[in-house]
Amino acid sequence: MPLEFGLWRVDDKPVRVATRPMPLESRLEELIEADPEILGRPLLLIGRQVQTDHGKVVDLLGMDAEGGLHVLELKRDRTPREVVAQLLDYGSWVQELTNEQVREIYATYARSRDLAEELDEAFALRFGGNVPEALNSTHALTVVASEIDAATERIITYLASGYGVPVNVLFFRYFEDEGHSYLARTWLLDDAEDVAPSPGKKGRGKQEPWNGTDWYVSFGDESGHRNWEDALRYGFVSAGGGDWFCRTLRSLPVGARVFTHIPKAGYVGVGMVSGEPKPFEEAALTVDGESRRMADLPLKGSYRASDGTADEEGGEDRREWIVPVDWEQAVPRERALWRTGFFANQNSACKLRARFTIEEVSRHFGIG
């Protein structure tokens, strides 16, 4: 049984606040949309009255901080069999949604509500991080009700506890006191496993597609060991100081397009990798049409590891690795571009799938 709420006003002597039937249970949908915090768990609302492929309409669709989807369905006046069957039908639909379809659902919702933020921005504002590369890897199903009957409780408990179906009931109580209205909430199953994998077609389409060309590069210049002015002038990106830092950079193929980001500053350049990675001591760059050893150039950064070379005994390679780049467009550090929702992580290089970042940085730098 769900926890039963009682509410008392204690300005003077305790006075119990009367529980009332919810005037319009459908108003819960409006209240949740206005403030999803009512649900008691962080969610970003991405759809309302969402049309499924089966001709049905999902009341509310939300997303959690891990990119999992949450179907919220109001019980209204339907029978237990109707509401549970509907919710399970929605579960069969939602588990098949691809990354692209999830983004389309949010875009439709944003347009209908005149929201300026794209999904990546809205996600970052809500959760303080980047949209996961894989969306809809899990899903949860929730009946939203002001009251439930014994049959609904039995069915939900049977499915969740006996068979691990990610279904639960969010149960509201409505109170009135001297012209004021209050809501209290609880879950039917506090310890239920409330998310389940959304494999769909063996996981295909959950991850945002990669175009096979674009890479993210982090150019950390805060230590002074490397300097963006050098990279901007001579055309390169670099990383080093340990295997973890240089391994991903060394995977950049010739012809890759790199979106270069300076941590705590923003995106400063987009260019094409024009040569194989080399340690600083062996690297050569093209300057005024002539190939020159990088070590012979006038540089602001040192680009030398503390021990100068790779560990001869098979330890970590602490050398600085250089990758030549022909800049399509690049700017000084003080003109770096940053927007809420842009992709950034601690890898020196990785495949860039974040469409919002690619499109906005390309647009800003005038790149097709």
Automatic annotation (TrEMBL):
UniProt key word Nuclease: yes
Gene Ontology MF terms in the entry: endonuclease activity; nucleic acid binding
Domain Endonuclease NucS C-terminal: 25-113
InterPro entries referenced in this protein's UniProt entry, alphabetically: NucS_C, tRNA_endonuc-like_dom_sf
Keywords associated with the record: Endonuclease, Hydrolase, Nuclease
Pfam families: NucS_C
Protein name: Endonuclease NucS
Lineage of source species: Bacteria, Bacillati, Actinomycetota, Actinomycetes, Kitasatosporales
